[in-house]
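The data are quoted verbatim for completeness:
=====
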Amino acid sequence: MAEELALVVGLGNPGPAYAGNRHNVGFMVLDELVGRIGGKFKAHKGGAEVLEGRLAGRRVVLAKPRAFMNLSGGPVAGTARFYKVQPASLVVVHDELDIDFGAVRLKLGGGEGGHNGLRSISKSVGTRDYYRVRVGIGRPPGRMDPADYVLRDFSSVERKELPFVLDRCADAVESLLTDGLEVAQNKFHPLS
């Protein structure tokens, strides 16, 4: 990634009713990053809660859209425009059903895999070519509808592991910002 300002967006749904949901793991990772920077989120006219600071030596804006997940694109595009951040310096942290709970995967571009938050962002910023930090939440058990699964809180067993998962995901964001995609992938993706 170039040395310019990076916009790191965590996806989730606003409000306390959704705070512990699997779908909100992007917000949770951003809260971990805020703890590393120091400070707190402030409302921004772009439609997101933002915090400007330095993370791993890089100038960053952390952002949590104030819209529901499926409408994340407007606030992300508005915040990117305000800070003059190009898609090549946009990092989106989101939940991923197709990755085991606790695993983290990084990629640039690609499809949205049925993730409506990503679809909204791609449409609003005009490209799929932005970085993604994909936080594994696993598949729903049995025949549970994935839409119901993502809107449920993590299980008690998962909640015990969650602080470690969030810490690792925050580390992956920092590595992506400082080392670039390939080095970060080599650090955080398991050998296959």
Observations:
- The chain has one domain: 6-188.
